[in-house]
Amino acid sequence: MDKHTRITKAWIPAFAGMEVYLRLMRLHQPVGSWLLLWPCWWSVALAGGRDPFMYLLFALGAVAMRSAGCIINDMFDRRLDRQVERTRNRPLASGAIGMWRASLLLACLLLVALWVALLLGREVMLWSCAALPLVVAYPLMKRITWWPQLFLGLTFNWGALVGWVAVRGEIAWPAVILYAACAFWTLGYDTIYAHQDTIDDAKIGVKSTALRLEKFTKPFVLVCYAIFALLFFLVVQPEKWPLFFMVCMALHLLWQVVVVRLDMPSSCKKTFSSNALIGWLPFFAILLTL
Fold first, then answer.
1. I need a labelling partner for 93 at 20 to 30 A (CA). Which of 54, 73, 165, 275 fits?
2. Span 50-75, pLDDT tens digits
3. 221-258 burial string, b = 16+ CB within 10 Å, else e?
């Protein structure tokens, strides 16, 4: 056995051990990080932010906080996840990793997020910390209300406020309107996402807007997307080319509602995931208005 082979075999167990941590952080599913990042970038751009380093910091913070949120969610739901086909193989649910190691990883991710917030300024740190109770409380919502997707919208889009604070140092009405718009966006796309698990959720007693709405899901999502688009138009006030990007976004949202097959999990997942890509359209629209 040559030296190269010995080194390679020595590293294989290390990489195999890392894989479970990456799955726990959902790094193999980057859609969630993009959906968390877009309200941040939109807000920074809307506030007039031009520093590329700030956009990079928000990207790092979004990955860290999304991963931390996934771990917190899995800690609360590990017993429920074992009873759901889509989630039973998650690291905590399957026993691939224990609570102690997950807690250690969670602490590291929160430290990274804190470091990013400190680099962005004291006000950003304070506003970021204010979101932590929402992050911790979210996993409990599916046990007590039919509207956990609404609570997720209020939690997941906090970056719309933080991004504005990072640039301007204070909250203003455009940031609040953007935050409300993004909350309706999340309420729409996460209701579609929740339809993947309706059969299992009904069996184990977990609540969701998908179960509550059933056949009224499509009209409800259409209203959510319409409110999102209208509020976004209000805050951006696009003209010419920016208007073109916004119209394309609105047409894509309409397309989602038309084509999604709510009785087909693969269709729900694909439609939900497409929201990560359309984030570029309003982002370009905002940049062209600066």
1. 275
2. 899 999 999 999 999 999 999 999 99
3. bbebbbbbbebbbebbebeeebbebbeebbeebeebbe
